[in-house]
Specification:
Layout lengths: L23 H14 L2 H9 L2 H21 L5 H9 L3 E5 H4 L12 H4 L1 E5 L1 H18 L8 H23 L1 E8 L3 E18 L5 E7 L8 E2 L7 E8 L2 E5 L16 E5 L16 E8 L2 E9 L6 E5 L2 E27 L6 E12 L2 E2 L2 E2 L3 E7 L4 E3 L2 E10 L6 E10 L5 H28 L1
Antiparallel strand pairs: 1-2, 3-20, 4-5, 4-13, 6-7, 7-10, 8-9, 10-11, 12-13, 13-14, 14-17, 15-16, 18-19, 19-20
Length: about 450
């Protein structure tokens, strides 16, 4: 290759210096960015926004779901949800961690007794939300081309927030009504309560409730609101009563079940297709000023309460499923239960009801009255609650349906999954369209 002098420019002497002067906004932005990166808050957010932390949290979440699924072999779905996914810390049995053929519980009983602490669903969800928000503050750009990513992450955040509100505020109960009768309370079969009921008038009772969280084996409940002290000798999540034989001596000394004995049953499995309800039972000792008033045997199935007189006041005492008194009354005018010909399979459940809202607002009853028909795939919605046709009340003698069982669900966050899927879906479509258009331009 020949280089000609007239085609090459040669500069003699020292090279000239070129100075680039930043404008005021650029210098200000750079200075602010450096100052922000030197703050302790930025350093903390940078650690929280780590992608490695995201991977670790996802791995911990997968293990929690796996162990929670295994736990449904021994416990019901409500128990597993409360212990594993709606808690901050859960204790994992060693038998779940050591999932090996030789890990036999009979040979190694410590595998079920030893439990190791592990982050629960709410703790992992909180950390994942913090990781996501920190990443958007530190890493992601605020530009319209990133709108798809922002929408996808917003949908995920809405889904997680909705699950939190569902776990905190959602409720589900059943209302049983006989045909021609009325009901104004819900029963929650996942929890029980021990109650003292004092009759004040023909239309008014005073109810003192001891919640299930206090009913632990060996615990003693003392309160100025209670007419006496309550000692829980035994509390069983699932049990049944057996009649004592002639040679047997019962534990109870008072009440209508003093000739019965308690047989503890395992809690219903969450993987059981029959979805049977657990019926808790308890052995309770009532005492006043150190003096024992009686030993009672309670079973949640029995609706007839025992009676006890304390300081001249007569109380009904019972262990029952948790109840919620409603502001409205539902009358069952007519109940229809049709079956397919030559089959026991249900063809139609239909409850024709009248709802009367008796909540007092401003010194007056709300006075909202309505008539509705509740049947399969056609629920009724009222004041934030949804009423579904669940099952029937059969007559013990004839087997004919004499009443209805309505499933009543309240979930203030029931729209969150719809918003989450819609926003995340639109974000995915926008992100896909943006990358597709770029690819087409480059190909052209």
């Amino acid at each position: 290759m020949i280089s000609r002098m007239d085609q090459t420019a040669i500069q003699s002497g020292p090279p000239k210096e070129t100075h680039f002067t930043a404008t005021a906004p650029e210098r200000s932005a750079t200075t602010w960015s450096k100052a922000w990166q030197e703050t302790w808050l930025y350093k903390v957010l940078r650690v929280l926004a780590s992608l490695r932390l995201t991977v670790v949290l996802f791995a911990l979440s997968f293990l929690l779901v796996y162990w929670g699924t295994l736990a449904q072999v021994d416990f019901g779905i409500n128990t597993v949800m409360d212990r594993y996914f709606r808690s901050f810390v859960v204790k994992i049995p060693l038998k779940f961690i050591v999932s090996a053929p030789w890990a036999d519980e009979e040979k190694w009983p410590l595998l079920n007794q030893i439990r190791l602490p592990y982050p629960g669903g709410w703790l992992l969800g909180s950390l994942l939300m913090t990781n996501l928000f920190s990443a958007h503050i530190i890493r992601f750009k605020r530009h319209w081309t990133q709108a798809g990513i922002w929408m996808i992450h917003t949908g995920i955040a809405i889904m997680m927030i909705g699950e939190f509100f569902t776990g905190m505020y959602a409720s589900e109960g059943q209302m049983s009504i006989l045909e021609g009768k009325s009901a104004n309370f819900l029963q929650h079969h996942h929890a029980t309560e021990f109650v003292f009921i004092e009759t004040l008038s023909a239309e008014k009772d005073r109810v003192i409730v001891v919640p299930q969280s206090k009913l632990r084996t060996g615990s003693t409940i003392q309160s100025s609101e209670l007419p006496c002290d309550v000692t829980v000798d035994l509390y069983a999540v699932n049990a049944k009563l057996m009649t004592l034989k002639n040679t047997e001596r019962g534990w109870a000394t008072a009440g209508m079940n003093r000739n019965q004995k308690l047989e503890v049953l395992p809690e219903g499995s969450g993987v059981d297709s029959s979805s049977k309800i657990d019926f808790p039972a308890a052995q309770i000792i009532l005492s006043r000023d150190g003096k024992e008033l009686g030993r009672y045997l309670f079973w949640s199935v029995l609706e007839n309460p025992d009676w006890i007189t304390i300081d001249g006041k007569k109380y009904q005492i019972a262990l029952r499923f948790q109840r919620t008194v409603c502001d409205y009354v539902i009358h069952l005018d007519k109940f229809t239960h049709k079956k397919h010909p030559h089959s026991e399979k249900a063809f139609d459940f239909r409850s024709e009801i009248r709802l009367e809202d008796r909540k007092v607002e401003g010194g007056k009853e709300r006075g909202d009255h309505r008539e509705a028909a509740i049947y399969m795939n056609h629920p009724m919605r009222y004041n934030g609650e949804t009423f579904y046709q669940s099952s029937t009340i059969p007559d013990g003698d004839t087997g004919r349906s004499i009443g209805t069982v309505l499933q009543v669900v309240r979930n203030p966050a029931w729209t969150f999954p719809y918003w989450s899927c819609t926003i995340a879906g639109l974000g995915m479509l926008f992100h896909f369209w943006l990358n597709l258009s770029r690819f087409i331009k480059r190909s052209a």
